[in-house]
Design brief:
Layout: H1 2-27, E1 37-42, H2 48-57, H3 64-73, E2 83-88, H4 93-102, E3 108-112, H5 118-127, E4 131-132, H6 140-146, E5 160-164, E6 168-169, H7 170-190, H8 201-214, H9 221-234, H10 241-248, H11 258-262, H12 285-292, E7 301-304, E8 310-313, H13 316-326
Parallel strand pairs: 4-6
Antiparallel strand pairs: 1-2, 3-5, 7-8
Helix pairs in contact: 2-3, 7-12, 8-9, 8-12, 9-12
């Protein structure tokens, strides 16, 4: 009987040793036989067991029990994070655990394009699958109140590509893009050219938004800014078509008509002198720089040449000649 008991103990010991060796070898082996990269999502509050089962169900973890036991043996179950993670199935179980604890989450891009309106920005943010909606209706007023502004939130974000993690709140994103603009504007406003006709940095953003909409040629920005600033200094109406279009809103049919130029709105710079009450779109850092450092020129007019660029003039006579040449096709 003693020999039999000893034999059973020995066999049990061998089994335990064998299981341990298999367990250790498995933790050092690839988590799946099929090599692939996958993005996996760990929901907030997920247990180690549920994470292991989820990975197994998605075909990226061959032995979920091994992963479960390994995490618990190392007492790291409370260090696992929620979020999206890119994993490679050639990793070992130990490498997977280290990745889920220490490495950054997957980053998703949101691009805010210069020249777009607040309505378009809201649509872009809401369409991003990584964003978590936390504003009631995500209307323009919601965003304005979030940023603690007393006027519109139009144009109050810095155009850029931002990277976010899954579950980022829309309110956090708006605050981040707004802070990026205010920080950049604070730096550039302090270095502005003297003698500009702006009472504050907000007026510079308004002017920059007009410059942004007036040209698609980056090199023209300082000259467009010079026209705008020279007109402000002389008390001339700006007469910038993009402001008229913005003021028309949904009434704009795609073509600007003479009646549109005569339609009174707060944004009609043909009927109103000075800047419109708010920006009309997102202004790039380059357009903001242009209005704070305009070209040293006496230009007051410009006309589209038909190739995306403009012809600039300092006198009405020269401007009218340019209109005849570039708009009416009458050669000088």
């Amino acid at each position: 009987m003693i020999r039999k008991a000893s034999l059973w103990v020995a066999m049990a010991g061998m089994i335990v040793i064998g299981l341990y060796q298999w367990f250790y070898a498995t933790t050092q082996s690839p988590i799946s036989e099929q090599s692939q990269e996958r993005i996996i999502h760990i929901a907030p509050g997920s247990s180690v067991g549920s994470i292991a089962r989820m990975l197994a169900d998605q075909g990226v973890l061959t032995h979920p029990t091994v992963f479960n036991i390994m995490v618990r043996m190392e007492k790291k179950e409370h260090k696992l994070r929620a979020g999206d993670f890119k994993i490679n199935t050639s990793w070992t179980y130990q490498a997977l655990l280290t990745h889920l604890i220490e490495d950054p989450e997957v980053q998703y891009p949101i691009t805010l394009i210069e020249g777009t309106t607040l309505k378009e920005v809201i649509a872009v943010v809401r369409a991003n699958s990584a964003i978590k909606a936390d504003l009631s209706n995500q209307t323009a007023d919601d965003v304005m109140h979030l940023l603690q502004l007393t006027t519109s939130a139009e144009g109050m974000f810095l155009p850029n590509t931002y990277f976010i993690t899954a579950g980022t709140k829309e309110s956090s994103f708006y605050l981040r893009a707004y802070q990026a603009l205010t920080e950049m504007l604070e730096r550039e406003w302090a270095k502005r050219q003297p003698g500009l006709p702006f009472e504050n940095a907000y007026q510079a953003v308004i002017a920059a938004s007009i410059v942004e909409k007036e040209t698609g040629v980056p090199a023209e920005r300082p000259l467009i800014a010079a026209v705008l600033i020279n007109r402000l200094k002389k008390g001339m109406p700006l007469q910038m078509d993009p402001t008229v279009i913005y003021g028309l809103g949904d009434r704009f049919d795609g073509n600007i008509h003479k009646k549109d130029l005569q339609t009174p709105t707060p944004y009609n710079t043909y009927t109103n002198k000075g800047l419109p009450p708010t920006p009309i779109a997102l202004a790039s850092a380059e357009s903001i720089y242009a209005v704070l450092h305009p070209e040293n020129s006496d230009v007051l007019y410009f006309v589209a040449k038909g190739d995306g660029s403009h012809y600039f003039s300092s006198t009405l006579e020269a401007h009218n000649a340019a209109v005849r040449q570039y708009q009416l096709g009458i050669k000088p």
